[in-house]
Amino acid sequence: MGPDAAQSYLMVDDPASSLKDEIAVQVGNLDPAYCFQCGVCSGSCPTVDRMEYGPRRIMHMIRLGLADQVLRSRDIWLCVSCFSCSSRCPQQVDICEVMSVLRNMSIARGVAKDEEAIFSRTFVDVLQRHGRMYEMEVLLRYYASKPGLSGLVGLVKQAGLGMGMFRKGKISLRPERIENADELKQLAAKFDRRERH
User: Fold this and answer.
1) Could you tell me if 104 and 146 lie in one domain?
2) Which of 58, 71, 73, 83 has its CA 20 to 30 A from that of 111?
3) Which domain holds residue 18?
4) Within 10 Å of residue 153's Cβ, how many Cβ atoms?
């Protein structure tokens, strides 16, 4: 890391940042100070090779209050929720849960631009709408969000797999709905409002 990169990495976006506090509330009063940067999380992570920072540095950036960099980082979307980091952390910091909270915050604040973020938002929207997963709507909405012909090309590539799953009865042309879908929507709306404040 060059001097410019190191300097920008160490600069705090907002000294009064409440990123740590927001995460602490959602992860059960997590104190990022418990993380002493041992690196076990990054050493345990199966996707760390594809990440820019890795879990250890993400935890450090949270302590520094670098909200913008953390919430825009592709790393939070590369976490596969395997819980290797959380189960091996000597300080019992639930890093996997922290990554999940960061993804939710990134979506709620409208900073998520990554494809994984778009898919995640689409997945949650469809689940809230029907109360159950409706794969066809997820794919149609996800690929419709892509610019130009790339969405259509992606959808066509999925057609063979979709037809095979349909023939085996794994997916349906019509969505299944739960009985109290409206209650689920109300609960989700309440959660969304809480996240935005």
Assistant:
1) no
2) 83
3) 3-108
4) 11
